[in-house]
TrEMBL record:
Family as reported in the entry's similarity comment: Belongs to the ABC transporter superfamily.
InterPro entries membership: AAA+_ATPase (IPR003593), ABC_transp_ATP-bind (IPR050319), ABC_transporter-like_ATP-bd (IPR003439), ABC_transporter-like_CS (IPR017871), Oligopep_ABC_C (IPR013563), P-loop_NTPase (IPR027417)
UniProt record, GO biological process: peptide transport; transmembrane transport
Chain ranges of the ABC transporter domain: 22-272
UniProt keyword annotations, A-Z: ATP-binding, Nucleotide-binding, Transport
Organism: Neobacillus cucumis
SUPFAM superfamilies tied to this protein: P-loop containing nucleoside triphosphate hydrolases
UniProt-recorded name of the protein: Peptide ABC transporter substrate-binding protein
Amino acid sequence: MSISTVEANQEHVKTVPEVPLLEVHNLKKYYPIKKGIIPRTVGHVKAVDGLNFSLYPGETLSLVGESGCGKSTTGRAIVKLDPPTEGKVILEGMDLSEISGLNLRKTRTKMQMIFQDPYSSLNPRKRIGDLLSEPLLAHKLTDKEEVDRKVNEMLEIVGLTKLHRSRYPHEFSGGQRQRIGIARALMLNPKLIICDEPVSALDVSIQAQVLNLLKDLQKEFQLTYLFIAHGLGAVKYISDRIAVMYLGKIVELGKTEDIFKKPKHPYTQGLLSTYPIPNPHLRNRERILVEGDVPSPANPPKGCSFHTRCPIAQDICRVQPPELTGLHHQTACHFPLL
């Protein structure tokens, strides 16, 4: 069998429809703005404003966009660390908005988070062994001997040793602390992991190591990632699909290759024009500058939220908000770029 035939068969396998592991429907997260001596609500910050997407078993979907677009808030709302204002989050057919208490506690074993800051996310008063054993003990999943065995095993899996379990977080480097955060997220054998900018606080060389570790773990444990990031290099390397966010909404969603080669939304083109290309023949490519500042999520523009900065905006863009349309490559734009 030829290489081209194998690649074609692999591509065919990837496109076979599957049942989503995670479904997000009209997800919103609003924060009240209060004023006065006796606080009263005078408005809302619309951090996440109606997201719709699905995440399939074994894939990595990345959320990208400028700071303040709602990426991290989306991740926290999905796992109900910061419960959503409106919308549905369905994990393996179970609507998380309809469960609470013990049922939610049991469901949380299926979804975990890796946080951006590997130091502040670890309790500085606890040893590493205690931090890793805590999830197992809290959920009463195993006995003490089995806990110790799993902690030692997980430390080795992420590139550390059992000798590290007696140390405190401040005794490790940033990359090692993030490995500990990854190990903690894996202790309960979750199916979904929200990676909230897990490499942005690390040096470039360490970023590559952590990304490779995440990819290896995904294969070994059949993990599904929602990967939140600023860096387009990391996103291109680890993602199967990319969702571009702007002001609390998804403006483009598609396969990684399609997003990088044929972006349809002007905002996506602006983001990609800042991405460095090592090929010297492409360094003089036309750059699309996105001018101006991101509008306040407390008072978003009417119509298309991007029209105040868009170089091709028309009258309809200022009045009518575009819908996210398309089959495999979706765009929320009245005049998508071809």
